[in-house]
Amino acid sequence: MSIATIDDRKYQRLLGKALPVVIRFESEYRRLMKTAEELIERPEDELSTEEGRLLELVSMLLEEYEDRVRPLPKTAPGKMLAHLLGERGLKAADLAAVLPKSRVSEIVAGKRAISKEQARGLAEFFRVPVELFL
Question: Is the domain of 60 the same as that of 93?
Fold first, then answer.
């Protein structure tokens, strides 16, 4: 694996434009969310190393703010799984790479718990915090 180096000047310019800060106000949140959205909309293979690192930094700042200001409600893992499936228009079969279809049905029905390994797989699949399934 090769490690991409950051061009300090390019990164400083990006930082100067984005002005990432520990978010304290909704206006700062919206500004940094716009920065993240602009970077996310671009194809990944077109992002420079510096832009990728900026996106990573801004994402961490946004996530920290959301966790602090808008904590996720505690919900039963099966209900959360059912919600995410419904919200995204998915079926149990769509999770075949993570869970067998029958296991999804058992979890949603509350008949079976989600293991830590399954929770990690679901979190990665849905791109949500693993804590939603634990």
Answer: no
Burial (CB count within 10 angstroms: exposed 0-12, middle 13-18, buried 19+), residue 14: buried
Task: Note whether 59 and 25 are same-domain residues.
Answer: yes
In 33-97, where do the E strands start and end?
none
pLDDT confidence of residue 114: 93
Q: Which domain holds residue 35?
A: 8-69
Domain with 115 in it: what CATH number?
Answer: 1.10.260.40
Residue 57, in any domain of the structure: yes
Residues of the chain with pLDDT under 70: 1-3, 72
Full-model pTM: 0.57
Residues 58, 35 contacting (CB under 8 angstroms)? yes
The dihedral formed by the CA atoms of 47, 51, 57 and 61, expressed in degrees to the nearest 10? -90
